[in-house]
Write the structure tokens for this entry.
Amino acid sequence: MSLYQLQKLIYHVNRDEAQRERYRQNPAEFIKGYDLTEQEAAAALNVDVRALYTLGVHSLLLRPFTLLHKVSNEDYAKALAGLE
Amino acid sequence: MAVVFACAASHAPGITAWTEAAPKEQADKIIGSYHKLQAMLDATKPDALLAISVEHWANFFLNQMPTFCIGRADHYDGPVEEWLRISKSRIPGDSQLSAELLDGCLEAGFDLSFSDELLFDHATMLPIHFLTPRMDIPVVPLILNTLTPPMPSPKRCYALGRVLGETLEKHSKRIAIVATGGLSHWPGEAKHGKINIPFDKRFLDILTTGDRSQLAGYTHEEINVEAGSGGHEIRTWITLAGAVPDWKATLLAYEPVVPWATGCGLVTFSRS
């Protein structure tokens, strides 16, 4: 597991306009630029909120990332239902 | 001239970003209290504002995470958030004062990081928006790591506060200090929306009526469990308490605002 790389990907998309644009153009290609496990890459590509949270992505990296994908407050909360 | 004004306040982004979501009475109380602080600050005519603040991945990532970082720039741009409903602004800095504070801390054994370029997120921008709406008072930001462990201990923060206070008391400028953050909140987590009212009230009680050095006794674990990942920001309040240890703290407002998912508090300090 390479949580650092996963969080770095999200941090770049959240904070760097040029990188965000590259990501938007081709998310799968962009994700390949980071050293991720298959599970992490899938979670990132699918914007799987629950999986990303469970993998340990910091909530204040995760929520802005999901906001870029227009995940509502309701859907975000639903995705985390039952977790600690 | 020394420290002329001190306050601590929550920076819940909902205060500006989704004001209307909160019950009007609560929103009016919090925003009204911010306006009171602004009037008090204005009356003291400060030359500069030390903002004891935090950030949320605006500047620093895990490749380089300073425990304490002083901004040493001539200006700072913010907010980084498009949705905060605070206009993008350029805030003047006071690089001379920053350098003097940095020297004072290093002399006293606090090895702070510094940065000549920082962006402000809601943590610093929201209080500035209310306290200095003309954004013409030079700001020195001191960013504490309350984002990702290991964080500076409350004891260490209180001790840093003592050094800051002693350095500023000798200074020729009139300095206002604001500590921003807290109180209990669990932003973006499974427990998002939870507020621990008893924790918040006990913290405010110790600050306003108790032995203030008790604040140095809080542990990371206690804050984590009782006040949430967002609650770690109370370290800025603890730092301020160390900077003005003999000043009387008065509670202006405490409101647990559920739609803002934060226990919001505002406290002003005055020389006894």
Remarks:
- DSSP finds seven helices and no strands in chain A.
- Chain A has a mean pLDDT of 96.
- The CA atoms of residues 15 and 64 of chain A lie 10 Å apart.
- The domain at 3-80 of chain A is CATH 1.10.700.10 (Protocatechuate 4,5-dioxygenase; Chain A).
